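Please decode residue identities from the backbone states below.
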């Protein structure tokens, strides 16, 4: 029997159609399966197409150069109280989080607190209200603080970054670095006896400990800020506790906070008072 394709070709030839044009295939092949390109490379640089990689990357963020959008370390160091520090940095646009924020979340609490919490960064509720830990995780933090016999306002609460990372992602190391000088000055001014880090991000970015939080929670660390060594108690982030609401996890956090409070309650030797 005659091959139907050959018959069709013969008919086209008889009709005087001298070539067949292949329809472009709608199927996009994987790059590795594509036939090697037979297009010779251009001989002159000006013939070469512009590199496509650069075109597909988002443009790098360029921070403003003025002292309001990009506060100078000298003005941060010159702040002698928390209100002055907030004034100096609240217009910050030094990293890409700045332009996306609703509100700058400086931190709040007793300016002379013995116990300071450091979280990761503002979420949606914090971004709207300009206050740290006011959403669901904040409600749990308040309860956890109450469980060790303190009120939230007797502590000081801050974050690694002061502007909300989009989609509640963790801040990048670059974003954390851009904000770290502000947090250091804040810690110097509060001068807490103990810092409790909430979750892996503050432990990594403030204390330099990159181990998993499950391994290191409850183990004392220390951080040097402004020439002073401060004991650090790493514990779970309240958002994690909400997700893993088991008695073991809640008990672990309670033990960590209790240890931190016991340290904070120790009498201050006169020579270490600021
Ligand atoms: N999570 C944080 O790490 N910080 C906040 O302020 C709120 C939620």
């Amino acid at each position: 029997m005659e091959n139907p394709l050959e018959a069709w070709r013969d008919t086209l030839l008889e009709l005087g159609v001298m070539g067949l044009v292949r329809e472009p295939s709608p199927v996009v092949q994987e790059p590795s399966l594509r036939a090697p390109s037979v297009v010779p490379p251009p001989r002159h640089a000006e013939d070469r197409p512009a590199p496509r990689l650069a075109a597909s990357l988002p443009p790098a963020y360029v921070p403003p150069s003025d002292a309001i959008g990009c506060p100078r370390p000298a003005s941060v160091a010159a702040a002698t109280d928390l209100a002055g520090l907030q004034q100096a940095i609240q217009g910050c646009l030094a990293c890409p989080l700045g332009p996306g924020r609703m509100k700058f979340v400086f931190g709040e609490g007793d300016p002379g607190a013995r116990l300071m919490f450091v979280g990761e960064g503002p979420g949606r509720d914090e971004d709207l209200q300009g206050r740290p830990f006011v959403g669901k995780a904040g409600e749990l933090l308040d309860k956890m603080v109450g469980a060790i016999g303190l009120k939230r306002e007797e502590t000081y609460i801050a974050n690694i970054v002061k502007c909300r990372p989009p989609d509640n992602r963790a801040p990048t190391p670059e974003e954390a670095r851009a904000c770290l000088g502000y947090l250091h000055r804040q810690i110097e001014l509060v001068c807490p006896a103990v810092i409790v880090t909430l979750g892996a991000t503050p432990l990594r970015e403030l204390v330099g400990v990159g181990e998993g939080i499950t391994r290191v929670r409850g183990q004392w660390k220390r951080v040097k800020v402004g020439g002073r060594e401060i004991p650090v108690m790493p514990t779970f982030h309240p958002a994690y506790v909400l997700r893993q609401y088991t008695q073991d996890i809640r008990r672990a956090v309670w033990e960590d906070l209790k240890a931190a409070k016991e340290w904070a309650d120790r009498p201050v030797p006169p020579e270490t008072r600021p």
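Observation: Residues 173-190 form the longest helix (18 residues).
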